[in-house]
Amino acid sequence: DTGVSQDPRHKITKRGQNVTFRCDPISEHNRLYWYRQTLGQGPEFLTYFQNEAQLEKSRLLSDRFSAERPKGSFSTLEIQRTEQGDSAMYLCASSPGTSGRAPWYEQYFGPGTRLTVT
Amino acid sequence: GEDVEQSLFLSVREGDSSVINCTYTDSSSTYLYWYKQEPGAGLQLLTYIFSNMDMKQDQRLTVLLNKKDKHLSLRIADTQTGDSAIYFCAESASHGSGNTGKLIFGQGTTLQVKP
Predict the structure, then answer these.
(1) pLDDT value at position A6?
(2) If you measure CA to CA, which chain B residue comes closest to A91?
(3) If you measure CA to CA, which chain B residue comes closest to A3?
(4) Do A108 and B45 touch (CB under 8 A)?
């Protein structure tokens, strides 16, 4: 089991550009979560998927944000027209969910993608 | 609404016990978690407790839950310099008739361990 992976680990972009992050969950985990963490704060929930279905989105997820999990495996988070306020660590997590392989409530995090908008 | 609060900083000497405290507001939370975050890294799941338990022990870690007061604590015995990190308390938020597993985090407690 290789754990949750995220790519890239760091991204520096200019305001107004689009960025896309990728998350690969632990194999056979059917729940996948995105969180955002700003300096000195705890992670804040953005959205989650069960398999390919996006079941909940936070009010933090403005229209410029979109997330997909097309085949129920990896997920992408895209931010369009980035703003300086988007600078943060974007964390992905996965849990077994309803797969039955392990306790559904154990949620494991990836290393995060640190976004800096200049 | 859902809210989780923690004290921001704790300093202890190596070998002492550390106790990190947390309060939460959602009485319907089913699971409560402790995560550890080292600089520049993601979150490591340390332990969790079901809401119908009072205590859980896992090696050097002891979690105590007072459901009446909505108070959770993490005790680290024989604290080592490698335990220096930020510790986050989190509750599993309920959503409608199911539990989404969405976590609500506190702002984190920075644990400093002095040699």
Answers:
(1) 97
(2) B42
(3) B44
(4) yes
A8 in Cβ contact with A113 (< 8 Å): yes
Q: What is the pLDDT of residues A73-106, one digit of tens each?
A: 999 999 999 999 999 999 999 998 766 566 778 8
Q: Which residues of A touch B110 (CB under 8 A)?
A: none
Q: CB–CB of B22/B106 below 8 Å?
A: yes
Strand order in the sheet with A75-79: A5-7, A19-24, A75-79, A65-68
Q: pLDDT by residue (tens digit) across A23-64? A: 999 988 889 999 999 999 999 999 999 999 999 999 888 999
Q: Report which of A35, A88, A62, A111 is spatially closest to residue B101, judged by C-alpha positions.
A: A35
Q: For residue B44, give how far its alpha carbon lies from the nearest alpha carbon of chain A (Å).
A: 7
Around Cβ B4, how many Cβ atoms within 10 Å?
24
Q: Report CA-CA distances (Å) from B83 to B24, B33, B79, B80.
A: 24, 17, 6, 5
Q: Any CB–CB contact under 8 A between B46 and chain A?
A: no
pLDDT, one tens digit per residue, over B6-57 is 999 999 999 999 999 999 987 777 789 999 999 888 899 999 998 888 999 9
Give B4's contacts in chain A (Cβ within 8 Å): 42
Tell me which chain A residue has its CA closest to the CA of residue B105. Answer: A42
